[in-house]
Amino acid sequence: MSDPTKADNELEPRLITETGLDQRLADIVEPVLIDLGYRLVRVRMLNQNGATMQIMAERNDGTMDVEGCEEVSMAVSPVLDVEDPIDREYHLEVSSPGIDRPMVRKSDFVRWQGHLLKCETSIMVGNRKRFRGKIVATDADGFTLERDQVSEGEEQNIVIPFTALADAKLILTDDLIRDALRADKLAKAEAANQNEAEDEE
To answer: pLDDT grade, residue 185 (50/70/90)?
Structure first.
């Protein structure tokens, strides 16, 4: 069995998924993304420019570029035309998750350990539903947050079960920007080396 925290596991399920129309859209586009070697981060219908369907996606190594966005857009458009899930005109927008990304898989918490996060839970965890702090540990069941603001009588560290998570997003910091750029550079170098090895075969 594959390791659920391994970042390149393309079949790793998302912890946070859509509801309603957004869920129907995710059910349509996710299989297309997987076939192309991408992972769905999030789908949302937004009331921008009339209506905009926003698809956030990334490669299994966590990277995404303009060419990737174009490839995803060209692959999902005909499928959406056939399925026709939206009863009005809309714009399709495909993007990377960005540096201050939504955290939707266990591997996201492993990959970005040591960085600041804000999250919300669906149930009370330690008398709260909203948290902000640094991810200091992750295991199969949840993650430990070192809170940057605690009230009297509260512990600095709190364990948040993945099953309680409703929403989570990285907070943009200089450290996060540096590490995201470094990770992107490494992934591109690995991809280039892999292409060279395939060319030599």
So the answer is: confident
CA-CA distance, 1 to 171, in Å (whole number)? 33
Shared domain check, 129 and 73: no
91-95/128-138 β-pairing: unpaired
Spatial separation of the C-alpha atoms in residues 197 and 201, rounded to whole Å: 7
Domain around 118? 106-170
Q: What is the pLDDT of residue 6?
A: 41
Which amino acid would we find at residue 28? I
Q: Of 95, 122, 147, at which residue does a domain stop?
A: 95
Question: Could you read off the pLDDT of 66-86 as tens digits, one per residue?
Answer: 999 999 999 999 999 999 999
Q: What is the pLDDT of residue 163?
A: 96
Query: What are the Cα distances from residue 101, in Å, to 74, 109, 157?
Result: 23, 11, 23
Asked if the structure places residue 79 within a domain, the reply is yes
Count of other CB atoms within 10 angstroms of residue 176: 19
Check whether residue 114 and residue 72 sit in a common domain: no
For residues 121-141, give the mean pLDDT: 95
Angstrom distance (rounded) from CA 46 to CA 93: 10
